Amino acid sequence: MINRSGSQIREDFLRFFETKGHRRVHSSSLVPANDPTLLFTNAGMNQFKDVFLGAEKREYSRAASSQKCVRAGGKHNDLENVGFTRRHHTFFEMLGNFSFGDYFKKDAIAYAWELLTSNGDHCFGIDPSKLYVTIFEGDAKVPRDDEAEQFWIETGVPKDRIFGMGAKDNFWQMGDTGPCGPCSEIFYDLGIEAAEEAGVDKPFPRDDQRYVEIWNLVFMQFDRSSDGTLTPLPKPSIDTGMGLERVACVLQGKISNYQTDLFTPLIDRASELVGYQNRVARQSQLAQHPDLKDSYIEQREEDIASLRIIADHARAVTFLLSDGVMPSNEGRGYVLRKILRRAIRHGRKLGQEEPFLFEMVYAVRREMQVAYPELIESAPRVAERVRIEEEQFSRVVARGLAKFEEEIEASWSEKLEKGHNFLRALAKDKPEVARLFINEEAADIPGYPDAVKFTPTGTDIPALIIKQYGDLLAQPILKQWYAIEAEPVILSGKNSFAIYESFGLPLDFMVDVARDAGVIFDMEGFQRALQEEQARARASWKGGSQKSAAPVYRELAKTEFEGYSALRVDGARILALVKDGIGVPELKGGEQGEVVLDATSFYADSGGQVGDQGWLYSEDHNSVVAEVSGATKPVQGVFAHKVRANQTLAVGDTVDTVVNGEVRAATERNHTGTHLLHAALREVLGKHVKQAGSLVDASRLRFDFSHFAGVAEEELAEIEDIVNRQVLANTTVQTMVDVPIDVAVNELGAMALFGEKYGERVRVVKIGDFSTELCGGTHTGATGEIGLIKLVGEGSVSSGVRRVEAVSGTGALSEFRRGFDVARVVGQMVGATDVAPAEALRHRIAAQEEEMKKLRRELDQVRMKAASSSVADAAGSAVEVKGVKVLTQRVDGIEKTQMRELVDQLRGKLGSGVVVLGAAADGKVSLIVGVTKDLTGKVQAGRVVGTLAGLVGGKGGGRPDLAEAGGSDAGALDGALAKAASVVEGLL
Description:
By secondary structure, the chain is α+β, with helices and mostly antiparallel strands. Strands 1, 2, 5, 6, 7, 8, 9, 10 and 11 form a nine-stranded mixed sheet that branches.
């Protein structure tokens, strides 16, 4: 067996199967394509699922891949075990070879054995005597897999190394129905040094730690129906999975995946970033103390687990962000944020409270960019997003973690106190027992955990109790002691909720911290407190129901919308009239209200597009009976037109709906522009960009999107260029209606927009090959109708969400005119120049600002000089009280910083004494008191200034030698200064 790197193992695996006629297929995204059943890609076969189901055909029938996978949420959740076991990970790579109706068991088994045991090219050369094989032992529906056993024997595996196992381990199925079949697993013997019980030699398969599964061969040969019937597949297939981390552990002669080169460089980098070596040095004296050696070893193990967690989670975070998952409070984003925060927390456990995890992104890139070259480009973007999350989480933790840890300590204290009280009671009877419950010597050692100072250390309490009381008398005492020891430490759910509510500490984070502290989080109590708070909030919420649809709308027939094809609908009947949320029989001229019709040409607010404006005409088509300012859908399918009646309207009347074509056209330009802008943002910033909200009206468009940082000016310019190239291309805007949603998403590649709810059949808006989205809005017939798109703003909406604003058509023309006017004024100001007007203006303003700063400095110097002159002889005017000089002076017109400088000057002139300065400006008072160092034991500046501040309507304080205060009564300043000497005298 040749020791080789993880990267070489990955490459050898793929090359081996390429020599066997397999197509090397690149890893798919961690976000499963069009598979709502999966949170993340968690197996190599995920990207071939439709091929196995017969829904997709490929040009090859054999494939091999190294698939990146994440298991950190949902059914497959390894998060809590990561770092504490040898083989659990959130992110891992699954090596796999696949046959789609081509070869089956015999070849799959032969390939596996050859790769593992042969010394040929790209083979691993593992000693066959270290390997074990399992097969399906059979059940009531499927017989024992004797066929696979025979193929293993023919390949060279001794029969006594082939073990039959049950369906739980050796029968695979894709779901409750569909493809399934028996499987064979290959195990490697790591040796007795890896045994779960040190030195205990257990035979295979009784030791899960010693015998590690490295490869699973799935023989997909049945189709399971809903009634459980298994039908042989016409083309049986092969799906295998070999964990890269596990096989690297084997080939590198380690007993833990974390000891392989896939992790050690990351662990080393994590150690550097958190300053772990300094921590080790600080703890070294603990290891020298005989009573504390066990505690030191335990702490070291916890620290190593933390470093492993950081290394593992850094890989998961880097790849998830690179594949477009953004931190959020739901779905995939929630799991990502949980992984991020768990890694951050373990960094904090090791003493690092500054952002560090973002640096791990570059370490991951360095180790994995050859296999995943996309990391080269994405790493800076990913690192910046991680840094933002770290800073945000640090603010949350700073507020709440200390309080939460106090609750944990209090929970432990309750249990410890029970034990101490029990021992104290014994001590009354036998004083020599008293030493059991405290270790005074340990308590004085730096670095010794505070909690342990109060726990029995280095003593076998039951043994000592037996020694003190004898076997017979000790039994009832021991029973009580063991009962106390067995009691779980439960963290109050009610108190935890109070911290959650007050400080914003995330629930999953608190649960994680509690688990690591060895306490049980009272989830039931937490949820009960949460429900009580929600009930209080509902009870105190006034007027909330006003936001729901008025009852008058609920029983109405749906409105037929004809506005996609026509701006006018004649003969629409009024179904209801609403005024102030109440149905009325009529609206009189001059009144405002809402009109519900059985048919309309008015688009109603939805999908970010605002409702149309226009008019309702009389039945004779000649006069305007109402002006329409907009339309909404208070109930799905019911259109309510916001109107101001020109004459009386009654339920049952017939009207014509006429949309303002100019406003509609302007709105359509902006809506089509929004689609172009969305596609351009994804092209320039990355495929992680997703719509997070929009508003489209006749005047402008507003588009919110997921992104981790501000968009640079050059990026905005590039986006603007891209959308306007699409506008100039005058591409047809194609609208497809009544499209099955799976066809729209899977075949047409349509993007679903934020905030929309889609049925089984949808409307698709396609702009050439540039943009395809599900959308119910109205659009231009071609992009050329937009005229021009001009971006006018970009900024932050919330964490991870940005906003751009733009105008189109005549709005863009107006924007350019305003810009031209500004440029003309700038030209007049700066004169002829070779640079652009904006740059010339920047230079002009910068020069003026620099000149203003210079003038301010000169003015400050003049003021300071004047103030210094006015107090030049002030030292001579100081009064003396009880042997202490007190100098007071009013110094209006200077800043606080200058007052501080002046105090220092005057203290220097006095040599020993107290200086009190006061100034008034705009009705406000500033006071500052300075005391020379030799007097601070007698007179404290803070006490002096506090008393004087009270006389001018203020308060203040500071150090014993220098203190400041403010006040609001400028008229009282002279009186306060006059009393300074008596205040000092009162302190002597």
